[in-house]
């Protein structure tokens, strides 16, 4: 089994790291570079920097914030937010990012995924999927894909969309449960497993961790390759080291 990754997430708004519940009620956490440096020292495997209002405001993630963050870390940085063209991606890579994450742009222009994979390499292209539990007219449960920071329903079933982005060239999927986000009730492993079983690329689970066993369940039940976490690390409920030692004792391979 390949080593599983623990990835702190920096949700950035107006140049500050913030955190909310179900995508609302944002609280200020601090400066992105300072938070990134702390997590790098703590043993993060990677970091994700998401400019959460860039798409809504029609701009790309701030390059200066990315540069400042990259300068203080030694691990890969994935950047998302308002990236809607190859030129945007090139600017983010020039600022020092290792990977880019696209969400709204991928929904509105799926061909961008294929163009990006060809231009920069599949391994550098992450497609972020925000999904919400939905009841069909017949009472069946499905997960609908949302865009624009969780504000716009797309009509896409998460399984169909995951297959589509994989076929177009996505190298990873960052899968966020909008229902679980910030609740600390656990990752939505029904959703995680549904997507992990559908496509052969790495799945990063996001949204809902509250206890150490939630990380273990994401790997063993949700079958994901990495977990994204914000609240527990931002508020110092657990350290990355604590999470990794717990997972190692549970037989899950991690990098200590």
What would the principal axes of the Cα set say about the shape?
globular
Number of strands: 12
Element string (H = helix, E = strand): EEEHEHHEHEHHEEEHEHEHEHH
The helical percent reads: 25-40%
Low-confidence stretches: none
**Largest sheet, spatial ordering of strands:** 1-4-5-6-7-10-11-12
Tally the helices. Answer: 11
What is the CA-based Rg, rounded? 17 Å
Strand content: 25-35%
Largest sheet: 8 strands, parallel, barrel
* Average pLDDT reading: 91
Give me the secondary-structure category: alpha/beta
Folded structure, characterized:
The longest helix has 11 residues. The chain is about 35% helix and about 30% strand. The protein has an eight-stranded parallel β-barrel with strand order 1-4-5-6-7-10-11-12, surrounded by seven helices. It has about 260 residues and is α/β, with parallel strands linked by helices. It has eleven helices and twelve strands.
């Amino acid at each position: 089994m390949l080593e599983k990754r623990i990835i702190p997430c920096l949700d950035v708004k107006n140049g500050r790291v913030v955190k909310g519940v179900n995508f609302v009620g944002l609280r200020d956490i601090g400066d992105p570079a300072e938070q990134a440096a702390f997590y790098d020292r703590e043993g993060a495997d990677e970091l994700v920097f998401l400019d959460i209002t860039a798409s809504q405001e029609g701009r790309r993630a701030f390059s200066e914030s990315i540069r400042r963050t990259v300068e203080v870390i030694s691990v890969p940085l994935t950047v998302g937010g308002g990236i809607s063209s190859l030129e945007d991606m090139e600017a983010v890579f020039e600022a020092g990012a290792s990977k880019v994450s696209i969400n709204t742009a991928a929904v509105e222009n799926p061909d961008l995924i294929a163009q990006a994979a060809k231009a920069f390499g599949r391994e550098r292209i992450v497609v972020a999927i925000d999904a919400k539990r939905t009841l069909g007219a017949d009472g069946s449960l499905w997960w609908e894909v949302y865009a624009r920071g969780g504000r716009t329903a797309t009509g896409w079933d998460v399984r169909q969309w995951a297959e589509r982005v994989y076929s177009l060239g996505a190298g990873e999927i960052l899968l966020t449960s909008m229902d679980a986000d910030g609740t600390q009730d656990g990752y939505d492993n029904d959703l995680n497993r549904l997507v992990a079983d559908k496509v052969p690329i790495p799945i990063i689970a996001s949204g809902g961790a509250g206890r150490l066993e939630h990380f273990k369940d994401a790997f063993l039940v949700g079958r994901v390759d990495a977990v994204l976490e914000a609240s527990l690390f931002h508020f110092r409920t657990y350290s990355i080291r604590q999470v990794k030692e717990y997972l190692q004792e549970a037989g899950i391979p991690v990098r200590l």
